[in-house]
Each structure stands twice: as C-alpha cells, then as structure tokens.
Amino acid sequence: MDKVWIHAEMGGDKPSTITLELATKARALAGTVEAFYAGDNADAVAQELGQYGVSKVYAVDTGGSLQGPAVASAMAAQIEGGNTPDLIMFGSTYDGRDVLARLSVKLDRPVLTNNIDVVEDGGAVRCVTQIFGGTTIVETEFKCEKPHLANFRPKSFAAEPGNGTTASVENVDAPEKARVRVVERHVEERSGPILDEAAIVVSGGRGLGAAEKYSMIEDLAKALKGAPGASRAIVDAGWVPYSYQVGQTGKVVKPNVYIAAGISGATQHMVGMKGSKNIIAINKDPEAPIFGIADLGIVGDVHKVLPALLEALKGR
Amino acid sequence: MNVVVCVKQIPDPANPGELDPSTNFLKRDGKLILDESDAYGVEMALQLADKAGGGEVTLVSMAPNSETSGLRTALAMGAAKAVLVSDDALKGSDALGTAKVLAAAIKRAGEADLIIAATEASDGYTGTVPEQIAAILDVPSITFAKHIEVSGSTVKVQRQTEAGFDEVEADLPVLVTVTAGVVEPRYPSFKGIMAAKSKPVDEVKVGDLGIDAGQVGVAGARQEITSVTAAPAREAGEVVEDDGTGHEKIVAFLEQLKVI
Question: According to the model, what pLDDT value does residue B52 have?
Fold first, then answer.
C-alpha cells in the first residue's frame, strides 16, 4: 500500500496504546502513515507518533463536540480533495467507532470491524476476525474502491517504535458543525493498574451470587496488585459499571494471570480473555466451559475458595 | 415524546452459532428472540416517554421470515407498535446496508424525538449500525450512554469513556445508544403479553422503503468472506475438585509463576 491513515486517540496524557499499535502495523503495511487527531497538545502527539513512523498529523478542531461527525467530515474533505489513502485504521474504541461509522456513510463504503489483523495479498486487502468466542477465524476481503475502512481490537498488534522523527502537524477544518456539546469530563478515581494493561486480572461473575460479594474480587485483585474485572452477566445486572466488563462487548485483556471466579465461560466472555498467558478458574459446575481453557481449574464454591485464598495471601 | 427503538431479533445466544457453509452467512433460520441488549433500550424508552408525560414507543427491526417473536416480547413490555422489514433481498446485508434499511424504517415509523439502540448486537456485534443510522438521518448521536435525561428539547447524557464518563448534551432529535445495565428491564406482565398479540406490526419490503435492492444484501455489502478456519484450541490444564485445599493449589500455581 502507498498510504495508510490511522485515527489517533489519547490515553491519559500520551497517545493511547491502541494508537501506537495501529501506527506500528500501518508502518509495516505502507510507505506513508498519517494520523487524524482531535484533542489537545497536537504537537506532543506528533512528536510521539513520529517515533512510530507517522509522518503527518492532521489536527482537527471539534469545537467542543464529540469526535464522530467532526473528524469524519475532516477525513472526507481530504479524500474529496484527492488525498486518498488505501486504508484507514481505527481502534475499536468509543470514539473510533463513531468516526468510522460516520465516515462510512459519508463515503458510502462498507466497514469491517473487530479485526485482529489485516493482510495485503496482491491488490486484495483482507481483514481477519475471530467469531464464535474466538473458536473460528474468518478472513473478509474488501470488494470496493479505496479507501478501505476497518477497526481493530486492542492488542492485535505489538506497539514498537521505529526510527522515525517528529511528525508534522497540519490543522484541518471540520466542515460538519458540532451538535453534541461536551459539558464536562469526569475522570474516575482508580487505585491499581488499569484493566486492559494489568499483569494480573481477577474477574467475577454470576457465581458470586450477590453484588456485595464482588468486594472479594476487588480484595483479591488488590492483594495481587492486579485489576478487577467482570463478566457481562454481572454488568448487565448492574453490580459493577460497564468499564469493568471483559469480553466481546467489553475489554480485551491478555494478562500474565487471569483468575475467573464464578464465571461459567460464555463465548462472549472467553473472547475477551482467552489470550491470557495463564488462566485460573474457580466454578461450582464441573461442566463449565471455562475449565476447557483453564490451566488450573478448581471445581468448588467461590464463597469458600476466595476467602481461604485471601487469608493465605495475607502478609505475603 | 415519541421514541423509536431499534431492536434485533437474534438466534438464542445459548446455542452455539453456525455459518451456512454455502454462503458463510450466520444461520438464522431457527427461532429468533429479542436480543437481551435491546431490552435495556426498550425499557429506557418506556421510562423516558412516561416521564415526558406521554408519547409512543415504536420499534423498528429487520429480520428474515417475517419473524416477530422478539418484537412481541418488546411490545409486551409496553411498546405501542412496530415496523418490521423482512425481505429475502436483505440476505447477506452488511452493517451499512442494515443502517440504510433501519434509517428508512425509522422515517416510516413517524416523527421521532429520540432514537434508541443498543451499543451493538449480541450476534454480529459490528457496533457501527446506530451511528451509521444517525449519519444517514443526519441527526446528532451519543453512543455508550449510561444515563439519559430529557428536559424540554434537550437530552443530557452521561457517556462512558476510557477514563470515566463525559456529560454531554444535544438538542432533539438525537440518536442515543445505551449500554447494558443502564436500567432494569421489566418483565412483561400477563396483561402485556396478551395485549402485545394485537398491537400493530407494519411489515414492509425493501421496495416499500424506496431503497434500491443493489444497496442492500450481498451486492450492497461489497465484501466477501474468503476463508473460514478453526482457531487453534487452547488446551485445558489440571482441573481439581475443591476438598478444602483448592486455595493452596492456586497459591502454589501463583508461586510457580513467580507472581507472589
């Protein structure tokens, strides 16, 4: 490919991990990699992304609105002006999906989503996706004119700096007027590592029996300096916020150790954690699918095993 | 306030999914049910219409074989009526094709102040359809809402972010996608179930919506599945019955990994 664009986002005060993953892959695919970024400190972003092979950052002013229509309209304006990449890569993130979807309508192009890889084969571009809880791998080929639009799950690619320098910054207009106003941003307090970057993740599920029992999961995560997670079932039940969810509709985690407590292992959950290096499962039901992928499975009651485990870890 | 809710009728997620080997499309020829993710949107719509002092909740759905069982569940919860698009020409439609159809169905449903959808369906989970619908209808959209409030002609939403949440607002009409757990969906009452049987379902074809058949189905999708393979299976390790020493096995395992 000649040119690939990526949608760049911040994670805290630096470009997010997924952004660096996309830049690394884009660099392997194409001679020219450029990024679209909406937010503060475009110069600092350009400096960091330059290290990852990005040569230019298009800085978009959203006028205090959500990114979707604004960034999509800025991309579409470039394309209408003849600046057309072969592929535009997005993270499967909140804002990434918004921009991708808006752009697909503007350009009348299909989207391929939730990919874990992209391959170029002759003139063909194919995206690779896992379906059915990661048991089946599907390759899908674009049958339309460029630019091809796709998003990728976090941790699909390794983030590795190249030997690039700083990227240039070009301020571009967002022709589409902002209609959603961001009134205030709330950053939730967090103690310990964030879920998708923690080396140890402890997740709880329906087997905990009641919302207040989730504190056992938090205590164990804390004792192991890990992050607490959850199955969709207890997020749907309102026991913990959506941001805790591990799975197809939540976070993808690949920690060194994943402990699943009271989680049966619905495909929806497994797709988010089966890439973990070591998996420990505790569940009452010996037939629970989670035992099919666990390195250590304890068939037992989480209400007995977890307190005993917490006690044993005390003072270590 | 009139609210339109996009609902999907999907194969029961309790059963493993399957691709049709001749087309590589997801098999959906068995009984379909209301996607659990959509129950939150239906409940939210009913509560918001109620708070606004009235108005109708209308469902829109696209499904094969004139399927209505999932729609009846949502009608039994309290929605007033539904528009169902069912047409063989839709087989193989992608996210954009689906959005074109649903956007046209929403227009057919009448003036909507608010359009609600789930963040993504449980079976296909492309996660782009609602935002594509908003783009086609040219209305503002707020995805990943965890709290919605309508006051006058403004909608205020708490939107999930990586770091926490944003407070955002926009003027109606707006499309909002809701995360699961945002409200507690009601169980349909017996009276509701009985009433749902006679609520109107306006079944239409692609042609009735003024959409060209080339925009939807396989032709509109402009993509082709070129290979389907089994992923390498992860092997199961040791599974032991807890005899009161299960926690010791976990401690030993963690020690061996040198994480404690």
Answer: 94
Q: What is the pLDDT of residue B30?
A: 82
Residue A127 and residue A267 in one domain: no
B250, B253, B256, B257: best to mutate for the A interface, most A CBs within 10 A: B250
Burial of B194 from C-beta contacts in 10 A (0-12 / 13-18 / 19+): exposed
Q: How far is B43 from chain A (nearest CA, A)?
A: 13
Range of the domain at A253: 195-313
Domain boundaries, chain B: 3-221
Residue B18 pLDDT level (bands cut at 50, 70, 90): confident
Rounded Cα distance, B163 and A144, in Å? 36
Mean pLDDT per 10-residue segment, chain A (316 residues): 97 93 98 96 96 97 93 98 98 96 98 96 94 88 97 94 91 90 88 88 97 97 96 91 87 95 92 94 96 96 97 89
A157 and A232 within one domain: no
Question: Does residue A11 form part of some domain?
Answer: yes
The yes or no reply on domain B3-221 and CATH 3.40.50.620 is yes
Least CA distance to B129: which residue of chain A?
A101
Q: CB-based contact (8 Å) between A140 and chain B?
A: yes
State how far residue B68 is from chain A, nearest Cα, in angstroms: 24
- Number of inter-chain CB pairs under 8 A, A vs B: 262
Chain A residues 12-71 with a CB less than 8 Å from chain B: 12, 16, 66, 68-69
Asked whether A246 and A261 are in contact (CB, 8 A), the reply is no
- Quote the pTM value: 0.92
A209 shares a domain with A167 = no
Please check whether residue B36 is in contact with residue B71, taking contact to mean a CB–CB distance below 8 angstroms: no
Could A108 and B223 be called an inter-chain contact, meaning their C-beta atoms sit closer than 8 Å?
A: no
A287 in reach of chain B (CB within 8 A): no
Residue A162 lies in a domain: yes
Q: What is the dihedral of CA B190, B193, B195, B200, to 10 degrees?
A: 170
Using CA coordinates, name the residue in chain B closest to A270: B234
Residues with Cβ within 8 Å of B245's Cβ and at least 6 positions away in sequence, in order, are none
A258/A228 Cα distance (integer angstroms): 10
Residue B255 has pLDDT above 80, yes or no: yes
Of A100, A126, A312, the CB nearest to B226: A126
Domain match, A65 and A115 both:
yes
pLDDT of residue A268: 84
The two three-digit tokens of residue A231, written as one number: 């199955």
Q: What percent of chain B has pLDDT over 90?
A: 83
Q: Are residues A217 and A281 in the same domain?
A: yes
- Structural domains counted in chain A: 2
Same domain, A156 and A238: no
Pairing type for strands A32-37 and A168-172 reads: unpaired
Residue B130, pLDDT above cutoff 80: yes
Q: What is the CATH number of the domain that holds A222?
A: 3.40.50.1220
Structure confidence at residue A187 (pLDDT): 87
Residue A298 forms part of a structural domain: yes
Question: Do A153 and A73 share a structural domain?
Answer: yes
ipTM: 0.93
Position A144 in a domain: yes
Cα B235 to Cα B226: distance, rounded to the nearest angstrom: 28
The whole-angstrom distance between B33's CA and the closest CA on chain A is 17
Whether B181 and A242 lie within 8 Å, measured CB to CB? yes
Same domain for A128 and A212, yes or no, is no
Return d(Cα B67, Cα B118) in angstroms, integer. 20
